[in-house]
C-alpha cells in the first residue's frame, strides 16, 4: 500500500504486525496502539494506550503480543478483535516509538495487517522515508458506515512521544515504556553461518536524546498551526482531500491575571456566571447558489450525506475537553463554494472576555490544523473562526479569529452575515 491508501477489512479479528524491511542493527522499536473516541478523535484516558507495559485493553478488544521473529528483524504485534471494540471508539491507531530515541530506529519499517484467524495478509505498508522522526503513526483501523477499514498513515513526529501525546490526548509517560522490559537492539542478519550474533545493547539508563539541540524543522508536518503571520493553509497540502473533517471548538475560562485587565473587569462588573455556553455555527454557500446556516439554534443541525454536507454533532453547554464539534464531508468539497465557521455566546457571559478557546480542524486523511482565538478586547458576542474557500482546485482554510460587536437589536447571526456579505433573511429562533 502507498501512504494514505485504504482498504476494506472484513475479518472479525486482525493482527497489526510491526517489523522491518531492512536497516540491520537499528535500535529496537515499540508498538503502541491507541484507541480513539468517536467524539474527540483522542484517547479517553491512558487506559486507551495498549503496549507491552499495558498489554490488554479493559474491553479485551486490543492486545499487545510479545515480539516474534522475522527474517528481517523482530516483530511487535497488536491483535484487534473488531467485533469487541466499544461503540464509542472510532479508530485504533498503531504508533511506533524507538527504544533508544534515535531517528534511525524508525527507518525501513513494515506494517502488515493480517487476518488473525486464517493468517492471510490483508494489507502491507512500508515506511521507508523516516529521517529525524522519533515517533511514527504507521496505520489505523477505523469505522466507516458500520464497517471497518484500514489506512496506511506514515505520519512522523520529530518531537517523539510528546508530539503523539499532544495530538492524541495520551500522556507522554504512557508512551515511554519501561527500560526494565526493553529488549535488545535489532541484530544484523547473519550473512555467513559462522558469524556470531551481534551483542545485546542495553539502552542508557537516563541519557535523554539531545533532540532539542538541533535547529529542527520536521520533515513531515504533524500539525499545522495558523497564526497572524501565517493565517492560511491548503487542505490539499495538509492531506485533507476526502473523508470527514471534524471542526472542534473547546474553551475554558482563563485563570485570574495578576493585573486585572479590561475583559476581567467587564466580566466581574456584569456578574457573568462561570458556566459559559458557546454555540459553534457555520454559514455556507454551495456552488449551486444555495445559502444557509448550520447551528443548534432552531435545530438547524445540517446533514453530512446531503446538502449542505455539514453537520453539527450536538450542543455542548460546558466547553471543557470535548467542546462542540462540527463535521464537513470533504467527499463533496466540490459542492462547497465558501464556509464561514463562527461561534456565538449563547448564555453565561456577555462577551468573550477572559476566555481561552482553541479551534482544531482534523481532516480524516490529513494533518490537523489548529489555532487559538487570542484575547478579546471588546464586548463581542460573535466571533468568526475560519473561512473555507473553494478556489476551483482546492479548499483553503483561512484563520479569521475576528471578534464582532453586534449593533443594538441585531443578532450575532445577522452581524456575521453582514460582515461576510451572505445576504440572507433572518428570523428569531430558539433551542
TrEMBL record:
Biased composition (Pro residues): 194-207
Gene3D superfamilies registered for this protein in UniProt: sav2460 like domains
Taxonomy, superkingdom: Bacteria
One of the Pfam families matching this protein, by short name: TerD
UniProt region (Disordered), positions on chain: 45-71, 190-216
Ranges of compositional bias, category Basic and acidic residues: 45-67
TerD domain ranges (all copies): 1-168
CDD domains per the UniProt record, alphabetical: TerD_like
Family recorded in the similarity comment: Belongs to the CAPAB/TerDEXZ family.
The name this protein goes by in its record: TerD domain-containing protein
The organism of origin for this protein: Streptomyces inusitatus
High-level lineage: Bacteria, Bacillati, Actinomycetota, Actinomycetes, Kitasatosporales
